[in-house]
Amino acid sequence: MREIALPDFIGESEKGMIVMVSALEDELEPLFRRFHRGEKVPYWFDWELIEMENRRYLVALDLNWEGGQGVAIGFTAEMWEVLPTVREKEQLTVITDWSLVGETRNQSWRALVIPDAHRGLDLLVRQVAQVDLSLQGTRPRQELDRLQEILAGCVDPVALN
């Protein structure tokens, strides 16, 4: 499994969520350079539940693009409350440079803007539901139940059927 980077900052703008992940600067720089040259770089993403040590869980946004290594951004249990805002705002912007936080100038080539970032959260709901039921009554299960409650506000109920 690839390394998972945690956000330094999670914020909200009129247009969407902003995730600042300085640890991914080297990994995303080649992609940003391609954007700067005007390339239309195909990319894709998935939301995943990752089991860590001691039955702790992360929600990971796994990002991949044509010709790149891909990266993963992890959201700890303390960060899960932002997931409904991803649905509400629909756009998620990943940046690696602190100088862009709060920036109003258009520096879109220095950011990965993901429209409809909520796509795939319905699959995450299913993944959480399928975690070992023997955890019933344990702290990890309570954590996952909380995640399911949070995700309930993120997906269209029709998509779960």
UniProtKB/TrEMBL annotation:
User: Any idea what this protein is called?
Assistant: Uncharacterized protein
In which domain of life is the source organism classified? Bacteria
- Give the lineage: Bacteria, Bacillati, Bacillota, Clostridia, Eubacteriales
